[in-house]
């Protein structure tokens, strides 16, 4: 036993074993199961093999395409909002501008939303974007002499609310990722650049951004997944999974509707498998293109 | 060496996924906290069978605990003690669905809303066949309302009420605009009154709904239509549907009605609007009486109930709207006593009297409707609240209250979802032509059902 634990060949595997087991039990086996279920019609008490009928049904289902379009729009929107913005803010926080104390307060304030529950936040945002005249957003636009808007009942208004919610919630987290990345950049690079006469912008573009690449790739990867898997925000904003004209319907929302609300687990599994393939189809080329799988250079 | 590299990269990838999963679970556990809802527990009873009950209406919970106390007095050898969990509508049905599918954590008794019921009896139902337990009371009960919860001749749910759709008018507000509600007989009268009210007050008379289809159901029954064809396939673009929606759209165009906040009268937002005096009329199932008492106390003595407006020569005057099927989960330790108790509480004469007294429902046992000691009881809170006797319009339409068979179709939950999220919004919020919106709904539904 002692020999086993001290063996440099075996010990590492023992240490990672709990992790491997959880992956196998909670990730690989459900994945496999979902794949199998997606080819079945499951009614309580009977399971019937239907081959690819669920997929066939899925591709003819207009609402699935609505959900897909919404998820993709949301993902692209959050990428545009949640990568450049937090990166610039992180650079500002990391710079010599402003007082340290003020920046510490700013960092904490930006991070607090990530600690609040989406459920609470969703309800507050629902009230902010409510259609009544006294709702916050309608008061704001009222100050400019505009009429109240039924925010959550239009595609643009609904997505605006979702983006604001996402920006409010995740900006602080992404700032932290970028700050960690920034602090890992050796100061020598900037000094060398200064000696060569680089301007602030050139330093940012030619030193900061390339050095931040691993962080950017990481944030991009989780944001793609997070955007496509969004469900709770829309669920809370609309007080349920059923938004008017399916404005807030996402792929996961559709999976939930079919699987849980309609008890059609076979069909819902097919939705899940398509979501997985979609995420892989976006993330893998992106990771290859950004060189994540390349051998590390020493 | 190679293996190590692979293991390391797999590990890194796995950890990243875990980090993501971390965010996900943090969110969901939060939602469970708020979804906990509240618990109503009956006083401890010695030697009683412990029954857990799930419902989505708080008042129902109080009804069950009251009935349990009465049951224990009459049946000292079969005492029950009920713990009621009140959960939000969607949460309760979803949790119940998961519990029944997985066979873990289901309650003994559950209230299942009629619109959700068909999917709970798909395949081999996990619910108990209650036919036998209901048999002693069956003769006095409106059969059509039990058929809603019957599949292949077996009864799986016990109804609560007839839910006759009626019209509620705020007479004070109507008088201010010179309108007498007793003259409103047809939809044309309703439209005329509505326009007149709008011209006089600048406010809308009634509502046209986008998140519920009470009025569509009523109109379908009056026109003799259904949501499905005879063979059970969807028929959302039937001539009756077009006609029903045209009638409602005309009301909207004449400024008689508008879409209320929340999309239908039975929502927090809409009740606030009613309280605010934004609307004077509501066409809703009879159980809306309870909402008036609970949420609009200052209108006491001002609300009159009348037969709903009709089309010319209606097939039926009214329709049963909404409903809750109380189901017993099969295989539970106390399933039998649960079934006996639930059948007695919901179907016995005492139970029917109590559904009226406590909840303001129009009882399934229509002989209660004719028992004047109960219907005219001056101490009754509903008799006191409403301007006319609530049973007056019910007795006037008794015998002409239809039911839509559509509600027993397994695809009905999909129909409900589709029209209440998409179609009605298309028509009443976005002015999509009726035929076009219905054709779209029909094709969406055909696609969804595969």
What does this molecule look like?
- The complex is a heterodimer of chains A (298) and B (450).
- Chain A has helices spanning 2-6, 11-37, 53-59, 62-82, 84-94, 100-115, 118-128, 136-143, 155-183, 187-195, 200-211, 213-228, 232-237, 251-261, 265-289, and strands at residues 40-43, 46-49.
- By secondary structure, chain A is mainly α.
- Chain A is globular and about 75 Å long.
- With 450 residues, chain B is α/β, with parallel strands linked by helices.
- Chain B folds into two domains: 4-161 and 321-387, D-Maltodextrin-Binding Protein, domain 2, CATH 3.40.190.10; 165-319 and 411-449, D-Maltodextrin-Binding Protein, domain 2 (3-Layer(aba) Sandwich), CATH 3.40.190.10.
- Chain B is built from 19 helices and 14 strands.
- Chain B has helices spanning 2-35, 58-74, 89-102, 117-120, 131-134, 143-147, 171-176, 187-201, 214-223, 239-253, 268-275, 288-295, 335-347, 349-359, 372-375, 381-385, 391-397, 412-430, 434-449, and strands at residues 38-41, 49-55, 80-86, 109-113, 150-151, 154-155, 165-170, 206-207, 257-258, 281-285, 303-306, 318-319, 324-328, 401-402.
- In chain B, the strands form five sheets. Chain B has a five-stranded mixed beta sheet.
- In chain B, helix 2 (58-74) runs antiparallel to helix 14 (349-359), helix 13 (335-347) crosses helix 14 and helix 18 runs antiparallel to helix 19.
- The longest helix of chain B is centred in the N-terminal third of the chain and has 34 residues, at 2-35.
- Chain B is globular.
- Chains A and B meet through helix 2, helix 3, helix 7, helix 12 and helix 13 of A and helix 1, helix 3, helix 18 and helix 19 of B.
